[in-house]
Write a structure and sequence with these properties.
The complex is a heterodimer of chains A (85) and B (185). With 85 residues, chain A is α+β, with helices and mostly antiparallel strands. Chain A contains two helices and four strands. Chain A has a domain of 49 residues: Alpha-Beta Plaits (2-Layer Sandwich), CATH 3.30.70. With 185 residues, chain B is an alpha/beta fold. Chain B starts with a strand and ends with a helix. Classes of the chains: A alpha+beta (85), B alpha/beta (185).
Amino acid sequence: MKLTVGAICGPAGSKANRTGAWRTFRPILKSDFCTGCGLCATFCPDSCVFPEGEVFCIDYTYCKGCGICAEECPSEAIEMVVEEK
Amino acid sequence: MTEIRIHGRGGQGSVVTAEILAMAAFEDGKFSQAFPYLGGGGDRRGAPVQAFLRISDEPIRLRSKIHDPDYVLVQDPTLIKEVEVSKGLKPGGLLIINSEKDPHNLGLAPGIRALAVPATRIALEEIGRPIMNTALMGAFSAITGEVSLLAVLRAIRNKFPGEMGEKNALAAQHMYEYLRGMKGA
């Protein structure tokens, strides 16, 4: 059977499914406001927010733009911006 | 008989778009039919899905998937890379896509008649969430005239009674007026 895009078979199969195209809103990290608490990374359901040395990075290849990181950030350092498509 | 194929992602409301447009055509006194095809990968959120819609002045006996549509609605421009959205589109057929960009710069197959409508922007304005299928219904009504706007609004309010239905009806109406205004200009 031919599987369509989005189906996942086998371990790490979801890597091929680049879910970044789903976004309507793009999270923008404002590093001036970031205190480095890491709540965004904890709550991101796709593990798209991750620490890179002192700062946090967002992986836009897989980020679906759900906005949970922005919702959880206590210092409002993440802004959700409409993405032009 | 007019055949329409709708491309979307799981959760964007492709199935509901087909359903509501079928209800609207019925309100207009036509025969209609709508059904989804969720693909070989299962109905997973975000996976590309299709929905089919037939509108006719006579009873519809055909029950198959639509391979040669008169119209194609595309809810998400990023689908163009994953699915051949214009497949089988009849000569003279039209593809309506939800995008702010020029449809001919989106990577569609050459020679396809395409029109882009800013459905997501209008949905964000009217509903406050990027659920743009009702705005797309307004666009379908304005561009093709296959269903009347009144019937679309009535079908939306029937499907979603209360505040949600009102907001969605506003989104459809907003899109309709936006496109008809452009035509006059």
